[in-house]
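Sequence, please.
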């Protein structure tokens, strides 16, 4: 098939390259000239503008977005709208909020254009291993693009599927990332407990390697964690500061809207917030309160 890829960063460029290796014709646009040049070396036809990208594609066109969620996606969707013709389809493969995807899909439907939301997981390993894709959209429209999804997936019949109508792909990916927050936090806490039991002198990399095989906690995430511990056992040079990209917050919001208890995901998100407060006013106030009601000692700075 023929496809235009917008966004040639780590994910977009690797996905485009995997499609080219799978026999598809891919044109790509990125505002960064170096990204376009690198993509060209991997067999992707570079376009210097959105207009040039759309012009290079045959009708009905298929355009895949791999750009940051939020304003950049909105701006790209709006810029594409007057360039596309009825019957063309846009696939948003980024981490957009599903509510934004519903809004954009309605806008495109009003103009006779298709819009598919595809929650995509796989990271930097996707080029080799394939991508997990949770797809939301019209059933016939998704089926028409089956060759693209089969090429990007780990196998033709594994790791991808239409999960429901438009919006459901990004909703499913949102919850996927919320689960990821909880799993990451559990691994981090567990290895921290092991590390603090200093009288045993545990080798955390060795423990991780043992758990990777036969254990009920084995996973690809554990594989990556163990690899990190092998490279840097003490996490030297890494600040205890953890960012979040939004999906964890959205998952907690969804749980609240649905009255669904989600304590693990919620607390894992709160822990990320806490990691960024290296001068906690709340902890200082707690210490002061203990001093006020019980005369407990305060540790001075």
């Amino acid at each position: 098939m023929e496809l235009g890829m917008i966004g040639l960063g780590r994910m977009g460029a690797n996905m485009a390259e995997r499609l080219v290796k799978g026999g598809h014709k891919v044109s790509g646009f990125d505002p960064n000239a170096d990204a376009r040049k690198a993509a060209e070396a991997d067999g992707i036809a570079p376009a210097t503008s959105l207009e040039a990208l759309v012009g290079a594609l045959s009708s009905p066109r298929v355009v895949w977005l791999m750009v940051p969620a939020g304003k950049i996606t909105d701006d790209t969707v709006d810029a594409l709208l007057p360039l596309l013709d009825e019957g063309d389809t846009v696939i948003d493969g980024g981490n957009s909020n599903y509510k934004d995807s519903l809004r954009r899909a309605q806008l495109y439907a009003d103009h006779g254009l298709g819009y598919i939301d595809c929650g995509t997981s796989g990271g930097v390993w996707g080029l080799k291993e394939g991508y997990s894709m949770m797809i939301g959209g019209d059933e016939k429209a998704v089926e028409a693009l089956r060759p693209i999804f089969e090429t990007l997936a780990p196998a033709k019949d594994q790791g991808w599927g239409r999960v429901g109508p438009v919006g459901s792909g990004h909703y499913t990916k949102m919850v996927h990332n919320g689960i990821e927050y909880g799993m990451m936090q559990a691994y981090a806490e567990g290895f921290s407990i092991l590390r603090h039991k200093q009288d045993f002198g545990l080798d955390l990399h060795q423990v991780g390697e043992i758990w990777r095989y036969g254990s009920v906690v084995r996973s690809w995430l554990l594989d990556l964690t163990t690899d990190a511990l092998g490279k840097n056992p003490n996490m030297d040079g890494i600040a205890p500061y953890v960012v979040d990209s939004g999906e964890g917050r959205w998952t907690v919001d969804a749980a609240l809207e649905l009255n669904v208890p989600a304590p693990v995901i919620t607390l894992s998100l709160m822990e990320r917030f806490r990691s960024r407060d290296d001068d906690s006013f709340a902890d200082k106030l707690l210490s002061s309160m203990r001093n006020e009601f019980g005369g407990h000692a305060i540790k001075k700075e």
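The chain has 14 helices and eight strands.
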